[in-house]
Structure formats: structure tokens, C-alpha cells
Amino acid sequence: MTDLSIPAGVLIKTTLVDFPGRVAAAYFLSGCNLRCPYCYNKELVTGTDNPQHSDFVSPEKVLAHLQKRANVLTGFAISGGEPTLHPLTPLLIKKARALGYKIKLDTNGLRPDILKSFISDPELRPDFIAMDIKTSPGRYESVLHPQGNTSTSCANLLQKSAALVASYPAGQREFRTVLVPELVTDRDIPAMAALLPQDASWQFAQFRNENCIDKTYTALTPYTDAQIQELVTQAQSLIPHAALR
What we know:
- With about 240 residues, the protein is an alpha/beta fold.
- The protein is about 30% helix and about 20% strand.
- A nine-stranded mixed β-sheet has the order 3-1-2-4-5-6-7-8-9.
- About 40% of the residues are buried.
């Protein structure tokens, strides 16, 4: 059995941005199957549950916080890293739900079989799912360096996961993209949009060139406001509810 006293991720005790429409807590579990060059949280990505890491807390402390704040918080977001990789995710969903919380799951979409198993199980089915679309599906292997051996292309995995997320009602799902120059251009937007249902909430965020895993991305200049608006407008022509968050 997993030891709940071992630090496994970063807890945000109260957040208004990680679960749309709810005051929530968010737990960012360690471990990821991508190496996005612009990611700025190496400790979470590498998957090393490091008790010495000053920001990491144990699931035991997370659950104690949820119990203590149950009269204020209504949502619990499980993120990462990639939470479908972490053995604690099912247990966290069950225990938080038993405390009365609505559950949001964040995913990069590369584990559709696990996502399907969560959705099909009443005890594990998230109340809200957010899926990242990072660049054109056909570019994942070359620029995001997926980890682990698979005979299935990232594009195929993303299509399966996007369809699963799209099976949720519109108000219980969203798709997210960080506007990273080099990765998200006017050539990539159509291929990314092709994964999404027409009524998708497609939320864009500005790129932060801070402490990126790939140091060349730390030196990369973010898009200007005008360039961002052009990309969002292009996305809106394909997915009407695309927006800059």
C-alpha cells in the first residue's frame, strides 16, 4: 500500500483559477510522461517524490487540509505532472469525494485507457476534466519528447482522449494551451483545433520564460499582446469559445 505520509507533490491550499466556478484546493502530483521544453517545474516532471523538496507535501497532509477546509472549499483539482501516472490518484479521488468535494482532473491526454477507466467508474469519474493541447498532434514526438515505449502515436492517443473529454457536458470540460513561440503558431492552430468539439472551451495562456527545463526556452521572447490576439482570433474562427485566460 502506498505510504500516505511520503511527500508526493505540491499543494495549493486555496485557488480560484484551477477549478472553473469553484473555490478549490489543487494538488500537483510528481511524475510526467512528457518533457515539454518550456516546463518550469522540473521536480514535478522528473517524478522523484523528494521528501527534502521544501514545497512537497504528503497526501496525508492534503487530506487533512481538505477535511479542515470542507466548509470553505468545494472543489479539489488533481494535476501534475501527469496524474494518470500516479498510483495515488484513485485513492485521492475517492477520499476527497467522501469529504463532499467535486473532483477536477488535469491530463495531457497521452493515457486514454487510464482516463477511460476513471470516467467509466462511478467512484473515480471526475466531475470536471481539463486536457492540455500543447502543439500540433504530429509534432509531439519531435518537440515534447514523450517518455516510455509505445507503439501508438501521440496523435492517436490525443484523439482518443479528446473524444473522451468531449463526452462530458460542455460546462464540465475544457482544453488548454500555453502560447509558446515555436510550439504554437498559426500553422499549428488548425491541427490543434481539429481535435476539439465545436463547443469546446479552449483556454489559452501566455508563456512564462522562467526556469524552463530547456534553457533555450528561458531565452525565448514571449508573444506580444498583438501576436497573442492574432492567434486567439484564428482559434476562435475554428472553435468559437476559444479565449485568452
